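A reminder from the course coordinator: this example appears on the midterm review sheet, so study it carefully.

Given structure:
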């Protein structure tokens, strides 16, 4: 076992290969995809000496276990979790050397949702449209990991980071999402806009890589009927017929027919990706995406 590859021993609830995605193809109906917490991906890559856009594994809640065929430096970050090599506890959030044939176990998240496992040289599956990211909506990129799958590794390009400690943001106990109203805030009543920004929502258990769904008071429509499908962006707050906001994440569709009441600042979406079901959510209004403060007046 000396070839640059790894074997999946335990795939976990949902583990995918992710990088920073494939932006620039929305006009072809291809979402950006990529890591839901790009800051965590960048940091684990830096820890093992990779370019920050290298592909790594994104785990969901239950972690995973893999067996590298060659000695490799690994870093696990994102959602805090126990990490073991051949049953021995090793550091989380720091570079660790894993020997050829050793079992690397990434445990269940203690807080947060998504962990990131970077390997020196990156996960070297074949790129599609310039990215190795698995897109669960369109089916582009590699399939989610399954037990027994073998993934190739690239050649290390740099040296592991030397550090005393890594500043990891803690998964939020309350998720605060800054939003700009629009482009379809005028499809909702002033009461609905007050409801959005003054009510407490919670992360729904039906959330996934496509969108963060919320439980809470529905938003009242001012305009009946449906929109023709129009372009959707990362962070769009779309309101389906049940009236409860959905925040679009990395695997979101590129078009949709439900009105978008607001758009979340992209910088806040990493925290959204780490919010467990039941986490309180508050939407905080900023400027309108149409360039006027606050969209409609919210008395």
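Designed residues:
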């Amino acid at each position: 076992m000396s070839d640059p590859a790894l074997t999946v021993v335990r795939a976990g609830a949902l583990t995918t290969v992710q990088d920073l995605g494939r932006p620039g193809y929305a006009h072809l109906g291809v979402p950006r995809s990529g890591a839901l917490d790009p800051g965590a991906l960048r940091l684990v890559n830096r820890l093992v000496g990779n370019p920050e856009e290298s592909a790594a594994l994104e785990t969901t809640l239950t972690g995973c276990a893999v067996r590298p065929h060659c000695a490799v430096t690994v870093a696990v970050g994102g959602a805090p979790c126990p990490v073991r090599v051949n049953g021995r506890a090793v550091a989380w959030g720091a570079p660790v050397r894993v020997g050829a044939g050793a079992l690397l176990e990434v445990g269940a998240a203690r807080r947060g949702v998504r962990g990131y496992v970077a390997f020196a040289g990156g996960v070297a599956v074949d790129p599609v449209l310039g990215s190795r990211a698995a897109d669960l909506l369109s089916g582009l990129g590699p399939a989610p990991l399954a037990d027994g799958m073998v993934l190739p590794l690239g050649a290390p390009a740099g040296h592991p980071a030397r550090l005393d400690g890594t500043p990891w943001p803690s998964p939020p106990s309350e998720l605060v999402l800054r939003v700009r109203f629009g482009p379809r805030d005028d499809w909702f009543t002033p009461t609905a806009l007050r409801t959005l920004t003054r009510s407490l929502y919670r992360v729904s258990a039906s959330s996934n890589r496509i969108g963060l769904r919320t439980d809470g008071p529905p938003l009242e429509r001012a305009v009946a009927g449906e929109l023709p499908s129009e372009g959707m962006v990362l962070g769009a707050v779309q309101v389906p017929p049940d009236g409860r906001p959905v925040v679009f994440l990395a695997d979101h569709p590129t078009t949709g027919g439900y009105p978008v009441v607001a758009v979340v600042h992209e910088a806040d979406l990493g925290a959204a990706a780490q919010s467990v079901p039941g986490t309180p959510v508050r939407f905080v209004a900023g400027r309108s995406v149409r360039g006027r403060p606050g969209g409609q007046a919210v008395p």
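The first strand starts at residue 5 and ends at 10. The helical segments are 38-47, 190-198, 269-273.
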